[in-house]
Amino acid sequence: MNDGTNDNSKSFIIFGRDVSKIPCFKHSWIYGISSGIGAGLLTFMFTSRPQLASHAMVGTICTVTLTYFGFCRYKVVKDEITAAQIKSLMQEALGTDDVEREDKIKKITDLTKV
Questions:
Q1: Tally of structural domains, the chain
Q2: Residue 1: is its pLDDT beyond 80?
Q3: Does residue 59 belong to any structural domain of this protein?
Q4: Which Pfam families match (predicted)?
Q5: Highest mean pLDDT: which range of 15-19, 26-30, 61-65, 82-86
Q6: Is residue 8 part of a domain?
Q7: If DSSP codes are grouped into helix, strand and coil, which group holds residue 12?
Q8: 3-state class of 16 per DSSP?
Q9: What is the pLDDT of residues 92-101, one digit of tens each?
Q10: pLDDT digits (tens, 9 = 90+) for 66-84
């Protein structure tokens, strides 16, 4: 019955990439679509012009999605770089004496401060 494949996996492939594995992709679209719907509804309520409301909705979806995705990916990459720096400093600290180890630990605590 079970041949090692997971039939319940939620994968979505675009251009050969599984977008469910891209960090920030799902949240970017959720925030973009919900903001676009809100902007479209508000525009329609205040102007009663469906074409303007649809343009406002699509523009808001694109703007919010791309902006949120950019900021989120920047944060993910920054966190990955910091984690790599901390890992290398911890490995260097293992092979040093007490004075150098304290310097490495101080650098690690400086990196972890937010």
A1: 1
A2: no
A3: yes
A4: Cox20
A5: 61-65
A6: no
A7: coil
A8: coil
A9: 777 777 777 7
A10: 999 999 999 999 999 988 8
Give the angle subtended at the CA of 24 by the CAs of 111 and 42, to the nearest 5°.
120
Q: Hey, what are 32's tokens?
A: 């973009």
Contact 113, 84 (CB under 8 A): no
First to last CA, the chain: 50
Strand partners, 18: 13
Single-letter code of the amino acid located at 6:
N
Please check whether residue 4 lies inside any domain of the structure: no
| Of 52-66, 74-88, 91-105, highest mean pLDDT | 52-66
Q: Is residue 3 part of a domain?
A: no
* CA-closest candidate to residue 67, choices 75, 77, 56, 78: 75
Q: Answer whether 65's CB lies under 8 Å from 29's CB.
A: yes
d(CA 56, CA 69) in angstroms, rounded, equals 20
Range of the domain at 60: 13-112
